[in-house]
């Protein structure tokens, strides 16, 4: 890995790139041109080092290589499922480990990206929720997951045809809306037509329900929205998704009704994990339909993916089919998500790194930061 003193240029927008160059002595009159050249090499062509940048002067490339890095996260392990799903365990520093999953399908390739190392939400059905938060990921670390996957899949240039990474979902480790600024910065570059060039319609941000940040996500990021709902009653959702105690279902659904850009052509996805004898009755299916009335919605039914020590079991297939039938009859698309990567612990809700071994003092500092974030959100109108 490059020396710790090297600043990564990944995650910087055009203006920040130019500023970084002037900081290294590049004349202001040339900085914008050089920044545009670097941008193209980094985000369109996927350059991993400056030596590959053939249209730049040799001395300039040498200076850039001494001051900056284009390094991706370090791959600690790679696992490939029998169904083709690939999972990478990545590291960017001592105790900073996170996971990324690539899911190939016939007509698309979806990359599931993490936004934090660990999580503070403690959703009781989620393996990641058993891991303490270490820290937020930076824009470089978020985009680094996409770029590493494109490297592995030989998916450059980003503007090419027949791309392998066609969709990105912020559904990996962590709560994206508790890392809003970094996620926004990364997704802005990801969806830039002259950058990584994914349409906003092919990017989905999933939240457990950080209600005050949902309008900002719609207006400032503009990606698709997915809600980890999983229950139709507050008393149950309080257990499954504890943030519900702060932002109950009524408030969450009101934020969805007013989500900027939501329409029948751009529906909000509601994720509903099927837990045996917990949330899978016909009555709950009918209540789900009722509470979503008026929201342009799609409902993803997710068979529970077990993990070591999990307190739940997956609903029977008969129960899942009956639940889906009720929702479908009400006019909602309700695909049952086919579990992918279960054999390598890469399925929904199974991600977890070993960063929980981070020193207790470091974890406590990260938890204090998360508490401060929550307090700031609580004071928002």
Structural summary, described in words:
This protein is of the alpha/beta class and 381 residues long. The protein has two domains: 7-69, DNA polymerase, domain 1 (Orthogonal Bundle), CATH 1.10.150.530; 74-378, TIM Barrel (Alpha-Beta Barrel). The chain is built from eleven helices and 13 strands.
Features:
381 residues; alpha/beta; DNA polymerase, domain 1; TIM Barrel; elongated
Task: Estimate percent helicity.
Answer: 25-40%
Amount of beta strand: 15-25%
* Mean pLDDT value: 88
Strand count: 13
Q: Nearest-angstrom radius of gyration?
A: 21 Å
Q: According to CATH, what is the class of the largest domain?
A: Alpha Beta
In whole angstroms, how far apart are the ends? 44 Å
Q: What name goes with the CATH superfamily of the largest domain?
A: Aldolase class I
The number of distinct helices, counting runs of at least 4 residues, comes to: 11
- Which CATH architecture of the largest domain would you pick? Alpha-Beta Barrel
State the strand order across the main sheet: 3-4-5-6-9-10-11-12-13
Query: Main beta sheet, described?
Result: 9 strands, mixed
Shape by Cα distribution:
elongated
Low-confidence stretches: 356-367
């Amino acid at each position: 890995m490059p020396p710790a003193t090297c600043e990564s240029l990944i995650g910087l927008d055009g203006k920040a790139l130019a500023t970084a160059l002037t900081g290294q002595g590049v004349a202001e009159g040339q900085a914008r041109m050089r920044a545009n050249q670097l941008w193209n090499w980094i985000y369109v062509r996927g350059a991993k080092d400056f030596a590959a940048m053939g249209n730049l002067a040799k001395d300039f490339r040498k200076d850039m290589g001494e001051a900056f890095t284009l390094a991706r996260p370090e791959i600690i392990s790679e696992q490939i499922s029998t169904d083709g799903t690939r999972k990478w365990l990545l590291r960017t520093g001592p105790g900073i480990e996170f996971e990324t999953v690539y899911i190939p399908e016939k007509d698309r390739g979806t990359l599931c990206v993490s936004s934090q190392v660990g999580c503070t939400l403690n959703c009781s059905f989620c393996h990641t929720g058993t891991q303490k938060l270490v820290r937020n990921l930076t824009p470089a670390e978020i985009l680094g997951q996409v770029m590493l996957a494109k490297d592995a899949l030989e998916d450059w240039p980003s503007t090419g045809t027949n791309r392998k990474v066609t969709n990105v979902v912020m559904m990996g480790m962590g709560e994206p809306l508790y890392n809003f600024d970094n996620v926004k910065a990364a997704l802005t570059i990801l969806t830039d037509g002259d950058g990584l060039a994914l349409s906003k319609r092919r990017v989905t941000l999933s939240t457990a329900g950080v209600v005050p940040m949902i309008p900002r996500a719609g207006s400032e990021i503009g990606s698709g929205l997915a809600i980890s709902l999983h229950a139709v009653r507050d008393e149950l959702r309080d257990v499954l998704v504890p943030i519900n105690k702060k932002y109950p279902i009524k408030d969450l659904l009101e934020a969805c009704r007013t989500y900027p850009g939501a329409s029948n052509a751009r529906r909000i996805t509601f994720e509903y994990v099927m837990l045996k004898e917990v949330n899978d009755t016909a009555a709950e299916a009918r209540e789900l339909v009722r509470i979503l009335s008026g929201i342009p919605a799609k409902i993803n039914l997710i068979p529970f993916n077990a993990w070591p020590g999990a307190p739940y079991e997956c609903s029977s297939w008969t129960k899942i089919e009956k639940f889906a039938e009720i929702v479908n009859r009400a006019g909602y698309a309700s695909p049952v998500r086919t579990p992918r990567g279960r054999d390598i612990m890469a399925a929904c809700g199974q991600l977890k790194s070993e960063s929980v071994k981070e020193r207790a003092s470091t974890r406590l500092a990260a938890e204090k930061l998360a508490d401060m974030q929550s307090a700031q959100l609580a004071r928002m109108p």
